[in-house]
Amino acid sequence: MRYEAWAPHYARLRDALGYPFAREEASARRLVEHLPPEAREDPLGRLGARLRGRDVVVAGLAPGAGPPPVWRLPRSAPSAAIVAADGAAAACLAAGLVPDVITTDLDGPVPAEIEANLRGSLVVVHAHGDNAPAIDEWVPQFPGALAGSWAGPPRDGLLDVGGFTDGDRAAYLADELGAHQILLWGFDFETTDATDPAERARKLAKLAWARTVLALLAREGTSPLYLWQRDGRRVPYPAGIAAESTR
Description:
- The chain is α/β, with parallel strands linked by helices.
- The protein has a single domain, classed as sialyltransferase cstii, chain A (Alpha-Beta Complex).
- It has helices at 3-17, 21-34, 43-51, 88-94, 110-118, 132-138, 166-176, 197-220, and strands spanning 55-59, 81-85, 101-104, 122-126, 146-149, 158-159, 181-185, 225-228, 234-236.
- Strand 7 (181-185), helix 8 and strand 8 form a beta-alpha-beta unit.
- The longest helix has 24 residues, at 197-220.
- The radius of gyration is 17 Å and the shape is globular.
């Protein structure tokens, strides 16, 4: 989704959750400082070479989901691409799957993402208001292909094609780059492993917005969007979920 179309939705989301935009700008500047020059060159072109025209499996990390069962997919040319959302990269590697792309804000098992990057994954690092220290620590340690994203207008080689959490940003990226279809694996919008009541409430609020953001993509995107169920069924993502939150 073009930034101009996405920006009003994110503005409402940011206001609802109380995210100061100045902090996001500060983290974005830090990310640009750490990205090597080649990581800022034509990020959409480099990502499109990996995803365009392919079935794209977006791997999430819902409790008990495990790695996406790509062996269930029909053998076709080109084969399906895997985009792992943050911690799902570790689950993919454990199953012998190297993601084509990883979307991360660096709050998961980053060493697994570095290992995947070493083995060929293109890692899209997202800057937001709370992760400047993680950017300083981890971005210089990635040895392979990188790109950057943030929640403002594209600039300095940083992307913004829509999305909020690592998982839905991955889906927006696949849609923007012309995926044949997008299969969401390991997505659960009602469960969190947080035990602290305040942290649990915060995470559930973010998941509710992620659910809404994906409904927007299902309505306005160009690639068919499906929830890939554990029994193998592909269920069209319900475009009407929480639609009023994005209006």
